[in-house]
Amino acid sequence: MYTLIFFLLLVAVITPIFGRALGSEISINISIFSLISCFLVSVFVFFEVVYRGFVCEVLIFNWIDFFSVYAPFVLLFDKLSVTMLVLVIFISTLVHIYAWNYMSGDPSILRFFFFLSLFTFFMCLMVISGSLVQFFLA
Questions:
Q1: Nearest-CA neighbor of 37 among 4, 81, 62, 74?
Q2: Global pTM value
Q3: Tens of pLDDT along 48-76?
């Protein structure tokens, strides 16, 4: 469930890339739907972390594992990060919905949604980063 947040954000970034093949409306709808479902999952994670006191650290892969230098790609879900994650995803979802209506006639709407989803992905990645290397790269 914790990695589902990461992969739903990744889907929101990847779908505008294939917008020409899928169609712009379908691509944008998939992107917005993945953000809405990511918000719902993050609310569930919020209640699990805040009210049950469950802190989760998910190791995705290792950036650097060389002798004594160790830099993992870790998603950390504690009270502060989950609270910020819910806030960031909620506001980003509202911005996506507003931008979908506002830019409906624009010919470069897919490029705009790609960059908007990429910005949302890196904001959420920065919020739930578990290492300093990952935080500064996000």
A1: 4
A2: 0.86
A3: 998 988 888 888 888 777 888 788 888 88
- Residues 6 and 2: their CA atoms lie apart, in Å, by 7
Give, to the nearest 10 degrees, the angle between helix 79-102 and helix 109-127: 170
Q: For residues 7, 74, 132 and 87, what is the CA-based torsion angle, rounded to 10 degrees?
A: 50
Cα dist from 78 to 28, 73, 81, whole Å: 31, 16, 5
Q: Which amino acid is at 138?
A: A
Is there a contact between 60 and 74 (Cβ–Cβ < 8 Å)? yes
Question: Residue 131 and residue 102: Cα distance in Å, rounded?
Answer: 37
